[in-house]
């Protein structure tokens, strides 16, 4: 599988890719296109995707075997979690049917996206204990583990053993816990290598370019390289002196400074904002009072409108006509009993009767209008 490894300068052009290699590349391109936050741990072999759920960052590791996509990929999560898609024994290996039934015609990008969607719908729970690293499970057929991107300290026949990836034993044994590196252990597990990655609240940060080789290592002799391989303090000192890490540190300091400046500006603007808030509260109280007065007037208008409706006027005319009729009858009884003379009787009786008939005529007219136009006629 020489196509996994970049050829050295002057070794000639790369051989053409066969059909399996082309299909492998298409699957990798699909994975990269579907997941912008994908981190390439080892080119064409190992990839990692971070995602945050319930304030916890979980990494999905994708390991592609040599015969991929004829062989299914191995997908695991770290740290160990409890989930129906994850093996309950170790809490890291994903046992979804999408992975176990992966074939030549499957789409790796869509498969991984489906797994992430399921994690979003049903968030996994972090386990209190479990394997300390990603479970790199190799076949027991004598095939060596997938080659890692390690630094080669000189010619292959005289150089020391390359540094293995954390979590994989150099003797092809079972996975082991990565060595504690102090501040290195505080760094996020997947380091994005794309031009820019989306962070919290949509802010973008451009990561420094990671070189394929480090010239500083070429100037060291075998003793220095062995020292670095065996002594964690020397390795840490070399790591923190890298210009890429210094750039990230400087960017972090600039970000902290900008945040402090923004906080100071917010403190300066706070009195103005408080004044605006008080002004808005005062206007809100005014609007509340105006609304209350408006509702009172609307209620009064409704009462007046009801009192002036045709049906109300008709009822009042009916009562007034009945009252005039009763007064005329009382006048007639007084005359018959001799309590009033004839002149007073004629004057009062004719007035009451005329008023009664007039009110009844108006009542009938209103009834006709109500039957024709309704109780609330509109003016034209």
Automatic annotation (TrEMBL):
Membrane topology designation: Peripheral membrane protein
GO cellular component: ESCRT I complex; late endosome membrane
Superkingdom per UniProt: Eukaryota
Keywords: Endosome, Protein transport, Transport
One annotated GO biological process: ubiquitin-dependent protein catabolic process via the multivesicular body sorting pathway
Predominant place of localization: membrane
Keyword Protein transport: yes
Classification via Pfam families: Mod_r (PF07200)
InterPro entries to which the protein is assigned, alphabetical: ESCRT_assembly_dom, Helix_hairpin_bin_sf, Mod_r, UBQ-conjugating_enzyme/RWD
VPS37 C-terminal domain ranges (all copies): 291-380
Subcellular localization(s) per the UniProt record: Late endosome membrane
UniProt-listed PANTHER family: VACUOLAR PROTEIN SORTING-ASSOCIATED PROTEIN 37, VACUOLAR PROTEIN SORTING-ASSOCIATED PROTEIN 37A
Family statement: Belongs to the VPS37 family.
Function description: Component of the ESCRT-I complex, a regulator of vesicular trafficking process. Required for the sorting of endocytic ubiquitinated cargos into multivesicular bodies. May be involved in cell growth and differentiation.
Protein name per UniProt: VPS37A subunit of ESCRT-I
Species this protein is from: Amphilophus citrinellus
